[in-house]
Amino acid sequence: MSDQKLHERLRKLLALSKSSNPAEAALALEKAQQLMAELGLDADDLELLDIESEDVDALLSTSTVLPLYVAGLIRMVTDTMGVDVVYTPRLGRLHFIGNKAKAEIAGYAYGVLARQLRKERQTFLKGQSKRLKRSTRIGRADQYAEGWVTAARKKVSALAIPEKEKALIEVWKEKNMGDLDTCKHRKAKAVRGKDDAWLNGWRDGQESRLDHGVSGSGAATALGHTRRIGAA
Length: 232
What we know:
By secondary structure, the chain is an alpha/beta fold. It has 2 domains: about 5-40, no CATH class; about 50-230, no CATH class. It has 8 helices and 6 strands; from the N terminus they run αααββαββαααβαβ. It has helices at about 5-15, 20-40, 45, 70-80, 100-125, 135-155, 165-175, 195-205, and strands at about 50-55, 65, 85-90, 95-100, 180-185, 225-230. A 6-stranded mixed β-sheet has the order 1-4-3-6-5-2. A hairpin with a 4-residue loop joins β3 (about 85-90) and β4. α5 (about 100-125) packs across α6 and α6 (about 135-155) packs parallel to α8. The radius of gyration is 21 Å and the shape is elongated.
């Protein structure tokens, strides 16, 4: 049985240990203590059981220096859901870290919004004249994406991470990910037509939607080198 399943079993036993039925509560507590010993957990580790990582494909970029619109979308999701995030460029994975339920929703939300943005950026890019330099077309598409994220961000409210939860997240990252670098990001090029491109993105970003059912994702293995996502 995997550690994740054992942790889930421990959560259920701890919940049962608070049962109003004394016999049931005592038995659950005894089994919980046995499982804690098996997993090598102490009382300080129990609070960390509610902190998990929801690992999802980065989708928009696997660069070590993220485009500003990608960093902005990631930060929008973490601010909205009240979680933290770590990025693994080598695997092209994002790890949304926090309360289990919030981390899962953050992973889902990012996937939905990133696919919307990727599709609309590609549509905008295809609409650019082939007579333009490729760098100009890419620059405009990046400006479009920055405008899209700016508009989408204005539609949501930030959810602060409680201080205790924030401290637990830091402990979890230290135990599971070690030292982290800060991930840099780059702005879109200031190409000709950038203002119109940004404005088109801003208009389309106002139509962004997040209205599908939540679906979990598989966890990444062999994290490799990971990075914090800086504020955008």
